[in-house]
Amino acid sequence: MRKYAMAAAVASASMFLVLPATAADAPTVVRKVLMQQDAPGGNTLSLVQVTIPVGGREGKHTHPGPLIVHVISGAFSLDYEGKPNITYKAGETFLAEPGHVHEGINMGTVPAVGIATLVTPKGGPLTKQE
Known about the structure:
By secondary structure, this protein is mostly beta strands.
């Protein structure tokens, strides 16, 4: 119970942890908001560093707006609805369309780190767990 209260408190401060959907003792994915700024149309533009530890997974989720991720180190294996699983390595970039269920998984031997850019409705969540 304490973990969930702590995660909720941290999320409200725009820096949050996401527990994997598979097991409570699995490696924890860390999302760190680097910048947020108002964007046209009542939206917010966010820049987020995502770190998936070895063996970690985000849990299936969606975003209310477009997501672009540039892989800085390691590799993200992307499970994306309706598409084959693709692994993106350091230096590569991928897009997740709004409302499409997806999950980043680290099947490698080093932490996977990426910089994500998201456009979301102002005041709304960055992600929605499925």
